[in-house]
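Progress against Task 2.4 (sequence-to-structure conversion) is shown through the following example record, which the project officer requested during the mid-term review.
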Amino acid sequence: MWQKDDYTISTDKSLLEFDIIHKYISCDSYWGIGRSQEVMQRAIEHSAFCFGVYHGKKQIGFARVVSDLATFGYIADVFILIGYRGHGLGKWLIQTIVTHPELAVLKRLMLFTRTPDFYGDAGFKIFDQSHETKFLERKV
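Structure tokens generated for the chain above:
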């Protein structure tokens, strides 16, 4: 657990408030509109780590990492509830993820976002499309 003023970050999945996570992602995010409860439950269950951000006992943020815990990790579903933004909690969440002992050793940690500048302080850079290797995706 990580503590900052009245806020806590925990990777204990038993503390997660599923209804808050699902509502935000399926109704308010730009990336997960309409995501079903079943899909969200499987996503949480099969993620290497889920990071809950709490103000007291109330969950106010979330992120998860999909990883083999050896070479690669993918950060997904990052959010801080609107009323709690602007206090550095999102940046603290990302710093907590990238410095987590089991994630800090990964060769590559990736994510997709519309706000790349937000992640710059944590060392993320836009992948160079002119680079000899190309980032590919397969959408179903």
